[in-house]
Please model this.
Amino acid sequence: MEASEGKSKKQGASRLCCLCNQRRPVLKRPKTLQQICKECFYEVFEEEIHQVIVKNHLFKSGERVAIGASGGKDSTVLAYVLSELNRRHSYGLDLFLLSIDEGITGYRDDSLETVKRNELQYGLPLQILSYKDLYGWTMDDIVKMIGLKNNCTFCGVFRRQALDRGAALLKVDKLVTGHNADDIAETVLLNILRGDIARLSRCTSITTGEDGPIPRCKPFKYTYEKEIVIYPFITESFSLHTYAYFKKLDYFSTECIYSPNAYRGFAREFIKDLERLRPRAILDIIKSGEDFRIATTTKMPEQGTCERCGYISSQKWCKACVLLDGLNRGLPKMGIGRARGGVNGDHQKETKKPASAARSLESKQCGSLDF
Amino acid sequence: FDMACNSSGCESGGCYGREKENGCKVVDVKETVRLCVKCKSNEPMTFGDGGSDDGRFCAECFRSNVYGKFRLAVTSHAMITPSDNVLVAFSGGSSSRVALQFVHELQVKALKNYEASRDRSLPVFGVGVAFVDESAAYPSLSGGMSDAIELVRSTVLSLSPPEKDLHVVTIESVFGSESVEARDRLVKLLDSVSDETGKEDLLLHLKMLSLQKVASENGYNRLVVGSCTSRLASHVLTATVKGRGYSLSADIQHVDARWKVPIVLPLRDCVWQEITRLCHLDGFDSLKTVELARHPQSGINDLVSSFVALLQEENPSRECTIVRTAAKLTPFYFNKIPETDDSCVPMATQRRLKKFNLKYDGSMTTEAFCPICNGPLNGSDSSEDESDALYAACCSSCRFQILPQEPSSLDHFGSLLPHHMISQVKHHQKFDSQTYLREKIKDCLLLDDEEAV
Model:
């Protein structure tokens, strides 16, 4: 045992890395609190993700896979790690970057720059789709109209469809998103709080939408957000460019500027506190979500197609069409909360009113893509 | 003419909302008289606790609402039937006080009916009270404990006729005696649990064991626990964050018959606010000094309580939504009163229980249980190839937060656990259904021990 020399040493500095027992530890791993060195960290980080991919059969060789790239830390690290693992373990995947521009000034424009840089760095082709192109509305426009209460509902619904449309455009076989363990744990909690048993049964699945247009999977399902944050700092081969940009991103934080009013905030804070007390609680929440005894009959709503745009929908019109219809008719509350009348309620066709002075956009068709 | 205001936000029962016509002054002839919205005759109660529904009901109607929920739970789940002997777990806290009160009132009514009936066919169920002294685990409680017990005693005395036995037991009684050795053993056991939350939870399991012991040793066949909606809401979240999602649905139903003495939760559908208001109404406040149930929580349980309190502020129906969501999870076969071949159960009761499918076939045991928390084990939890029987038998949550992390300490830890917990472990080494079933039916077998295979 080395004698401490009266100088205050960082705890563990006299010990060795838990995993390799050779090098000096530089950090305490958030997931397990193990004291490990830099090399072991990125090795175990990447290896765990590789194991998740293999054990859950996420990909097949030859698949065209689109990475949902927001430019935030999750998707940046995802792009890097996935292309690394693809190369190292010969997954045989054809990887693309797919980015959605919601049209939020001061937020998305900056992160899109990252994604463009990612394209150059990793040689991954990039496609950017904007809400403006797809729907005729930017999030800024929407917030101007509806305020800050239900804007996240709009954004979420539109983004989900946008990713699917983009994927269809690129003719990809699968979508991957950077949802991490913290995200999924948070979703489990929110679904309990909101009483959404159907969503609760689906939200822990690592792959969803296998019977829909584009299946999507979450390789980061068991990866801690804190570790995703640490990774770029630790990994030397992570380009300095990204590193520098990454630091700048922290400035804008990964929070959307409209998010302070989102309900998710409660659950997020709670999870952070929980993690401090017991790091494995995040995985325990996910485990609980997987183990909940939910009757299979509650799981799948009947799946049809939207009459207006052809996207998959359990109702007459898909949610995006309902929301858009509301926006275009100056009825922003439509589609929010419980369905009462309207298209998906009693199917009443009202006579078309002349466009209001405030918003005279023609309602855009959702697109005529064949799903 | 009277026109009650129909707006939902209007709290008073008899306000007069009239349109002003052409600017003419409309003068209200009567002052707004507040009336109970239910009986429309008495003045409504104001509790001033900032809660919902304040000032809507009179004291009687409020009370009958809450009692009504209790009685509905009891009858629709066959919690208490005439031939039962019911033990009420009383901690001194508000919830269990209300449970005790309501059970007493139910018993009084049954006694009245019995005395009035000609044939006296339906007996009156018996009621006992149990109080667990946890001062061995929480030394800070020992100072006020004797006063607390006196208060408990006088409370139970005041609730007669019919008379009720009071059983005061220490938590170390799970070890078979209430000696100094037992107390020491408890302290040693708790000290060997390094996780704060694990320690708290282990104590809860031990408390339940001691209640079960009192109940079965004194001939009770039901254990009444005063858990209300709010407590269950916290439990839903603590179970979720501890990875106990599989067993959660077993814990939050009205009936939990995993145990030798089935547990019933008649206040499951009442919220904390109703409980505290009722205590205030009935003058149970004095028992706040006996609020021993509120011993300090730390760690995860405390974090969840604070979180739920925060959510309640933001939306007062959140607790109900949480429990309602969890109630949609599939319960277990033992979440019903078990079928017993009890000849002293009145025919009418038997028929009724059968008709509404309120019982289950007790021989239908398909689950294995964790020896420490008695949670049903999920298939994925079992790890084969485990050298230590105790480790292999426990659920993953107890393994992490209660069992010692060092494999070499497991044996010693096992020796500290109460016999009842450990005795199950032998069965779980390898879940041998043959042996298990034979265990269940051995009372009926005519073979001698030597002849048994």
The domain at 48-236+248-295 of chain A is CATH 3.40.50.620 (Rossmann fold).
